[in-house]
Specification:
It is a single chain. With 78 residues, the protein is α+β, with helices and mostly antiparallel strands. The longest helix is centred in the first third of the chain and has 10 residues. The protein is extended.
């Protein structure tokens, strides 16, 4: 009840289709990692330092873009 997690995750292709269907122009796109996993905690929503989790940050810094957990779309309205 407090943290339902993700109900649905979308692919780049799906979101790009919705962008075009809504009449927007896709200006730019990038995959990224927007979290510092040394401090992320999805269980109790408290900030706990977890230095050993720095490996996750390093992992996402070297993997190909499509393996990263985030996407940023820059759109232009018609």
């Amino acid at each position: 009840r407090g943290n339902p997690g993700h109900f649905r995750e979308y692919t780049r292709s799906e979101l790009s289709t919705y962008v075009r269907a809504a009449g927007f122009e896709l200006v730019s796109f990038r995959y990224g990692n927007y979290f510092d996993y040394r401090y992320a905690d999805h269980l109790d929503h408290q900030v706990h330092e977890r230095p050993l989790w720095a490996w996750v940050n390093r992992f996402y810094s070297v993997v190909p873009g499509s393996f990263k957990p985030g996407m940023t779309f820059v759109l232009r309205a018609p």
